[in-house]
UniProtKB/TrEMBL annotation:
GO MF: nucleic acid binding
Organism of origin: Mytilus galloprovincialis (Mediterranean mussel)
PANTHER family: DOUBLECORTIN DOMAIN-CONTAINING PROTEIN, PHD-TYPE DOMAIN-CONTAINING PROTEIN
Taxonomic lineage from the root: Eukaryota, Metazoa, Spiralia, Lophotrochozoa, Mollusca
InterPro entries: RNaseH-like_sf (IPR012337), RNaseH_sf (IPR036397)
Coiled-coil features, chain-numbered ranges: none
Annotated protein name in UniProt: Integrase catalytic domain-containing protein
Annotated TM spans: none
Amino acid sequence: MPFGPWPVTFRRTRGGVSQSKRWALLFACLVTRAIHLEVIEELSSSSFINAWRRFIALRGPVRQVRSDRGTNFVGQLRIFR
């Protein structure tokens, strides 16, 4: 479940401020109610796949996934199968 965007300030200089948008991807365990957040740079399938791989590397394999039908999630369905 991605949510955001939030403006993130990278650096402040005398000439101005460099900002970019970031989103948070929320993973929630339906059994233990544990929460895991991943920060992603854009709402694309490749960003989601990279965040998913980081999540699996930290937390281990997942038996079942429930998600909404967002286009960025539908694009990566073949990886789950």
